[in-house]
Amino acid sequence: MRKFLMSLAVLSMLATGAAAQDASSAIGTVKVASGEAAVQRDGKMLPATEGFDIERKDTLVTGADGSLGITLNDGTLVSLGPNSRFELAAFEFSPRRDAFNFFGKILEGTLIYQSGRIGKIAPEKTRIETPLSVIAVRGTRFAVRVPANSGN
Question: Model-level pTM greater than 0.70?
Answer without folding.
Answer: yes
